[in-house]
Write a structure and sequence with these properties.
- Helix 1 packs antiparallel against helix 2, helix 3 packs antiparallel against helix 5 and helix 4 packs across helix 5.
- This protein is mainly alpha-helical.
- Strands 1-3-2 form a 3-stranded antiparallel sheet, with helices on one face.
- Strand 2 and strand 3 form a beta hairpin.
- It folds into 2 domains: 52 residues, no CATH class; 97 residues, no CATH class.
Length: 169
């Protein structure tokens, strides 16, 4: 470890406490859920502490983000997740599933790195989609090709670019 053990232990302890508290709140203190989540809390705390200390050691600095742009991105993501969830639920309850699945290739303007990974991850977390980065493009599987996917991906890309303060976004 290229960092002081005492500082690492303190940061790990702090993260363990915070993550345990968050898990306890999410599970409303149910004992079985706490036991189930304990290994995941430990792994998450350890990995996040390692990532933070490696970034400080110069092995991959964390990029600064624009706080207001991050809030806009969170709002955009939550709203589109809600819309996607409602859309998927409505499709599931219809007698005939109105599906027209497709793979959409979206040319990324974001530079390779954390911004493209974040965008791909956010797209994959939205209901009814799955994304992968392939040769500078974002390949997205959608449930219905007739949607406004290109405009939505463009808006998401602008939000992500603004978060990382990338010129032109």
């Amino acid at each position: 470890m290229p960092f002081p053990a005492g500082a690492f232990a303190a940061a790990l302890t702090w993260r363990l406490l915070v993550f345990t508290l968050l898990w306890w709140l999410l599970t409303t203190g149910q004992q079985a859920a706490l036991l189930f989540g304990a290994p995941f809390v430990i792994i998450a705390a350890l990995l996040s502490t390692l990532a933070r200390f490696r970034a400080r050691a110069g092995e991959g600095p964390l990029q600064p983000v624009a706080p207001l742009a991050l809030l806009r991105l969170i709002g955009f993501f939550l709203w589109h997740s809600l819309l996607g969830g409602v859309d998927v639920a409505l499709r599931a309850f219809r007698w005939r599933l109105p599906l027209s699945p497709d793979l959409i290739d979206y040319p990324l303007r974001l530079p390779p790195g954390p911004a493209t990974v974040l965008m791909s991850g956010l797209v994959s977390l939205m209901p009814g989609t799955l994304a992968v980065i392939c040769a500078g493009r974002l390949r997205v599987h959608v449930l219905d090709r007739r949607g406004h996917w290109h405009q939505d991906l463009e808006r998401l890309e602008r939000c992500v670019g603004a978060v990382y303060r990338i010129p032109g976004f």
